[in-house]
Amino acid sequence: IDVLPSSADIEVGGELSLDCSINWKVASNLSQPYTEKDLDFLIFAEDGNEINRKYITILNDSAINLYIPKISGPTGRKWYVCGIKKYKEKNIFTGISYSTVNVGYKPQDLTNFRCISYNWEKLNCTFDKKVNYVYTNYTLSYFGGASRRVNIQTINPNDNKTSYTFEVEKYLSSYDNYIFEIAMENSLGTNLQKFEVSTYNSVKPNPPLKMNVTMRESTRVTLAWELHYILHVFERGFIHEGEYTRAGGRWSTSDIKWQSLDMTKLMNTSFSNYSLRIDGLYAHMWYDVRIRVRVPGATREELWSNYTSFQFQTHAKIPDRPPRVDIGSFYVNDHNDVVLYWEQLPLEDQNGNNSHYVVKDVPDVRGKNRSVIKPTEINTIMARYVNLPNADFIFTIHSANSEGESIRGSTIYVPAKEKRFPLPTELKKFSINGKYKLTWAPPKERQDELVSYTVFWCESKTNPNECDGPMSFETVDASVHEYELDYSKAVNMALSANSRYSSSGLLWSMCTASKSDGIGKLNMVWVSKMDATYMEIQWRLECSDAPIVQGYQLTYCPITAPKNSTCKPNSEVVKNITGTTQYNITGLTPYTTYMTTIAMFSKTRMGSPSVPLVNTTFEAPPTPPRNLRIVSVTNTSVTISWDRSERANGVLNRYTVWCNSSNFPVYNNLNENETFYYKIENLQAHSYYEIIVVAWTTSSSNKSEIIHVQTEMGVPDQITSPQNYKYDDYVLLSWDPPRHPGGNLDYYEVYAKVTEGKRGAVGFSKKLNTTKCWVNRSCPKSWTEIDLQVRAVNVVRSPIPQGKDSNITEYSESEYILLDTIDTGAVPLDIREYPSCLGRTDSHLEKWLKADRHPTYLSGDYTSIFYYACGLSQSSPLIYIFIIFVGLVGMAVLTMILYRKCKTMSDIKVVLPDALNDINKDSKCPKIGEIIESGVLRNVQIHHRGETRVQQDEQERSLLRNHMESSSSSTTSSTANVDNQSQCESHDGPPEELDSMEEQNHHIEMEESDKHSIESQQEEMPNEVSFDSLQPQKVEDKKICPTTEPQTHQVALCPGVNQYVHFARDM
């Protein structure tokens, strides 16, 4: 495929005609073969887009023509492609050949032709042109001044930029004027332009050189510089322009303000040397200065030279003035700490390094006691004095630097507290639309003396009465009560009220409100204290809200459920609070969850409530258990029941049942049952008990109502402490009542067991209502022994009505025989008042017992109170004499054997170690009496039936054995001599022999003793009686009346029990 022409230049708005032909033989070999029949698939496209076929004409069976009558702008380069379309789909074709078309203009006029002569050395010219894609040839011709010699120079501005600069190749600076002609030609046409340039007025000098300071003072300097040497012969002269500003990093770019130099003071010392004096500068200040030049005829900005910049610093000097202060430039706190404030000198007034401030001597205003008071803290805006006395003071403040102090000083008068003017009131600060607004009210007192207010402000620090930058202030009239400050940074503000001679000092605004009428939500609310019935709420006010808050609305209520924080119906309480940031809520219910919110309110509106606080009050003692009652009573247990506490006031963890001084916890199913049962066991029969119940959470409730209960009768304890007293042939028997009677102790039953020769043992019983009775030791001839036992008996009367009086018991034949042995006339008078232990039961007691036909007898265990061997008492006295004689002979023989053994052992020589040489080798064997008296045999005590035994302390036995085995010596008062050990062993008989000897002696003494001596007849005695206590005792008689209840309660201790609880179901 071929496209003709292959390239073309077309003027904007002109016509375009292109021919495209195809070789079908080649087309038939393509991957998608085409033939003459596919001529309709031959197309043109512009920049990839198919051109409408209305612009295409078929010339023959292998060629087509594209004709566009008008090419619209803008200028540019376009590509027209001829190709074969695939499958008649739009924009899908195979490009085979193309033609490049440049759309443009005829040569256009050049504009803004100008030239610059750089430092009067070379000349560059520039012109502006339109963009044209039709290639154009440019031919430059020029000549200078009166010379007509034309210079030709080729330029090529076909880069399609809007301006073009070229350098004049044969420039001569001596020519004042140059004339330029530019011929332009392209395929569409031609053009010719002519320009004239004044090169002297187009000179751009180089910047000034070698700038330096020739004279320097604290407020002025003189600068000098020179121009490039080529410009020395430029006769038209030069115009200078310059600026200066303070230098250094203390100012941002936006704060730099350039001031123009006064060029009327410029001096031209030679053709190219200049000097300039700069006045009105600040001392010890760095400055930036910049100067540029141009020729007089140059009017374009671009013809100014570049700036030459230079820095210099003026000399230092002492400050010219003290810091500025106001009558109210002081602050006094409650501790009489005084803080002085002043306005810091600006940098331009500091005049030197190390700028600081000095407070001079501080004399008393009255001129007395002149002294120097040094501040505890001083910086660039304040001085602090701590704990000054309450007096008038005048403080003098001077500015200072490394050169010295200012000559003048500023004074601040701080009057004593009683002379100080009252503070302004209702001070509030607002931040509105990027501005600060301070409002206040007059002092409450001495308003007629008020002459002005002073508003102070400084950049904010952490505390609202501290500054992080310079202090500023402004005085306003007494009639003004608000002040607006346009300040971009955060500031702290204060106010003083002033009279003619005194001031209140500063009153700092502690908070800033963001809006004058808006009110926010409290963010810091917490519970500081809490108990079972009260809750202390505290909150902290944001500074942004403090100026407009009038009070607070506290709302609290118990919530519905732990997961439902809504108030219970009709439970919400609302309190309005003013003048404080805490509140004590009292009268709360223990262990109850409450929701609390606080909202601020102003004069015009109510703020949003705070985030709810949900807190549970502490646990408290529950209310007492209710309806304590007796369920059942036995002789060893009491079952009680009670209803749960009305209010638990916490987590109920147990009930405690108190029975007299004992207590029993109850834990089971505390939260499930309404009624509780408990069985108190192991109680004493027929005893009175006091029972209460308390409930527990973290502490106990008050006690429930008290119930008193008496257990049923039971079996009495065994009788203890039986004793007997001899009266000639009679013995008075006595015993104590049981420790725990278990009932009324209706009577005692004495059981007599008599052993006869042929009949064997025969038993008889008698009922007594006393604790004493007597018995005759003279036995009938047929008796061999008699054994008396006694027990206590309680009688439980039946509810069946009692019958008629019954007859007295008919005794058996054997009982009559027993009764016949009693001869009451021979009974000694001392015991005749007591009944006999044998015989018939008292008729009144017998009648009382027979009156109830269905009683229940509760009998205790028997206790032996008397035993007597009848045969021994009737033996001849010679038997006793014989026994004593045999005993004495035996002791004599034993003594002789021991003596011989000791004698034999004394002949044995014992060699002892050196450490034992002090032992007495000739010690004699102690006598039997010495052994007994020395304490080796101790604690000889009488047991039942007259038996004796020796209780020897185990430690003394061990000590004696060790001494005897080691052959060591001891004192004769404690053990036998070691050397005579063998002889001692012959006399060391068993304790039973000694007991036998002592028993014989004891029987002899008993026969000769007073008739009131004691004869031990008890079969088993739990307690042993020593010899020292064997003295007659008179036992008072005690009769047991058959009553069912004593005059006063018997209070018994409840023992520990194995508790268990029965619970009521669906009561």
UniProtKB/TrEMBL annotation:
<dbReference type="InterPro" id="IPR013783">
    <property type="entry name" value="Ig-like_fold"/>
</dbReference>
<feature type="compositionally biased region" description="Low complexity">
    <location>
        <begin position="966"/>
        <end position="975"/>
    </location>
</feature>
<keyword id="KW-0472">Membrane</keyword>
<feature type="domain" description="Fibronectin type-III">
    <location>
        <begin position="520"/>
        <end position="623"/>
    </location>
</feature>
<dbReference type="Pfam" id="PF00041">
    <property type="entry name" value="fn3"/>
</dbReference>
<protein>
    <recommendedName>
        <fullName>Fibronectin type-III domain-containing protein</fullName>
    </recommendedName>
</protein>
<dbReference type="InterPro" id="IPR036116">
    <property type="entry name" value="FN3_sf"/>
</dbReference>
<feature type="domain" description="Fibronectin type-III">
    <location>
        <begin position="715"/>
        <end position="816"/>
    </location>
</feature>
<dbReference type="InterPro" id="IPR050713">
    <property type="entry name" value="RTP_Phos/Ushers"/>
</dbReference>
<feature type="region of interest" description="Disordered">
    <location>
        <begin position="961"/>
        <end position="1038"/>
    </location>
</feature>
<keyword id="KW-1133">Transmembrane helix</keyword>
<feature type="compositionally biased region" description="Polar residues">
    <location>
        <begin position="1023"/>
        <end position="1032"/>
    </location>
</feature>
<keyword id="KW-0812">Transmembrane</keyword>
<feature type="compositionally biased region" description="Basic and acidic residues">
    <location>
        <begin position="999"/>
        <end position="1014"/>
    </location>
</feature>
<feature type="transmembrane region" description="Helical">
    <location>
        <begin position="878"/>
        <end position="899"/>
    </location>
</feature>
<dbReference type="GO" id="GO:0016020">
    <property type="term" value="C:membrane"/>
</dbReference>
<dbReference type="InterPro" id="IPR003961">
    <property type="entry name" value="FN3_dom"/>
</dbReference>
<feature type="domain" description="Fibronectin type-III">
    <location>
        <begin position="624"/>
        <end position="714"/>
    </location>
</feature>
